Amino acid sequence: MSDVSDPVKTSENRFIRKAMQLPLLEREFEVELARKWRDNNDHKAMHELVMAYARLVVSAASKYKHYGLANADLIQEGNKEIFSLFSSPIINAFQFLCLSKIFTIDLAKTS
After folding, report:
1. What is the DSSP string of 67-94?
2. Mean pLDDT on 77-95
3. CA–CA dist 52, 57 (Å, integer)
4. Contact criterion met (CB below 8 Å) for 80 and 17
5. Is-contact 60 101, C-beta < 8 A?
6. When comparing pLDDT for 32 and 84, which is higher?
7. How far apart are CA 30 and CA 103, in angstroms?
8. DSSP per-residue codes, 10-61
9. Taking a C-beta distance cutoff of 8 angstroms, is the pair 62, 101 a contact?
10. Which of 29, 45, 53, 77 gets the most CB atoms within 10 Å of its CB?
């Protein structure tokens, strides 16, 4: 009998590896990207911000996976929260990190 990889787990691992390899943004560059998004609706800038914060979401999710939720679910919810922030004015990185972490903690506690 052959060992068949779980495609969801493989995809999750690939996302985690990619997210953890991405560098954190320098403050000035982060502000520049946020302004490009806010002022010009620049989707490339938004994508770069989301991917930079994916590393923080993965890190936060890994701290709460022992609450019984799948790591993939925690990461997905954190990423959804980050995307939802793009419908409101961007304040700063601290807002992204705090909201994604709070959401991950709340999700873990309610399950």
Report:
1. GSS-HHHHHHHHHHHHHHHTTS----HH
2. 69
3. 9
4. no
5. yes
6. 32
7. 22
8. HHHHHHHHHHHHSPPPPHHHHHHHHHHHHHH--HHHHHHHHHHHHHHHHHHH
9. no
10. 53
Distance CA 11, CA 27 (A): 30
Q: Measure the N-to-C terminal CA separation of the chain; round to a whole number of Å.
A: 36
Average pLDDT in the 53-60 region? 85
- Collapsing DSSP to helix, strand or coil, 7 comes out as helix
Tokens representing 69? 């939720």
Question: Residue 95: is it exposed, middle or buried by C-beta count within 10 angstroms (0-12/13-18/19+)?
Answer: middle
Separation CA 97–CA 109 (nearest Å): 18
Give residue-wise pLDDT tens across range 73-84. Answer: 888 888 887 777
Helix (H, G, I), strand (E, B) or coil at 108: helix
With beta carbons less than 8 A apart as the criterion, state whether 45 and 36 touch: yes
Q: Which amino acid is located at 40 in the chain? A: N
